[in-house]
TrEMBL record:
Catalytic activity: an N-acyl-D-glucosamine 6-phosphate = an N-acyl-D-mannosamine 6-phosphate
EC code: 5.1.3.9
Family, per entry: Belongs to the NanE family.
InterPro entries in UniProt: Aldolase_TIM, NanE, RibuloseP-bd_barrel
SUPFAM superfamilies xrefs: Ribulose-phoshate binding barrel (SSF51366)
Gene Ontology molecular functions: N-acylglucosamine-6-phosphate 2-epimerase activity
Residues annotated as signal peptide: none
Protein name in the entry: Putative N-acetylmannosamine-6-phosphate 2-epimerase
Organism of this sequence: Tenggerimyces flavus
Amino acid sequence: MSRLPYAAGALIVSCQARPGNPLHGPEPMSLMAKAAVDGGASGIRANGPVDVAAIRAEVSVPIIGIYKVGDPSGVFITPTVESAADVVRAGADVVALDGTLRPRPNGHTLATQIEWIHAELGVPVLADVDSVESALVARDAGADAVATTLSGYTNGSVPTDPDIRLVADLAAKLDCEVVAEGRYRTAADVRAALDAGAHAVVVGTAITNPLAITRWMVEAMR
Ligand SMILES: CC(=O)N[C@H](C=O)[C@@H](O)[C@H](O)[C@H](O)COP(=O)(O)O
């Protein structure tokens, strides 16, 4: 049974810009979301209630809401039930949250956080994991689906390529939908993720971050 509001093969575009990026803010992100949907995206992933609300007003596709709070070196993607409630009240249809094995900021367990979101907010939970082990634990804790979002971000330096092997391993081992996310840069990358068993693919930087894309080009021209 599909727990996510996306048909198989969906492209979900992540529209996020951190402070310091000239596109930071609800207006640029809602325009990015509209462009993505006009281009055929089936969903949007967005950060924080302000951006989620602005995007909700602009597009009708299901939104995966996250709320980055705290220190990026630890659990910071929707770390608390309050942060989940904020993005759902702003219009998110799915909550994505940190599903790694790292300690959570307020002492809650992943299972109690997911249980509360299901009971109080009534939306599916997508666990952003970094390994097969964390994905299995997240699924046991009640996650409706898992995403490879945090692979490569929890120990040491960040790789260049997407973790397609993790997508294949999760698709083979889990009884839920697997979302491929993290460092998907090209059409060949997203095709490979679907071929490896992904239900959907999330692409962020390569579509919605011209600052980063420009840097890639400039670097290659040195
Ligand atoms: C690790 C982390 O914090 N990932 C975040 C999760 O929401 C975003 O910063 C990413 O842009 C998103 O996952 C999409 O990935 P990419 O931008 O590589 O296509």
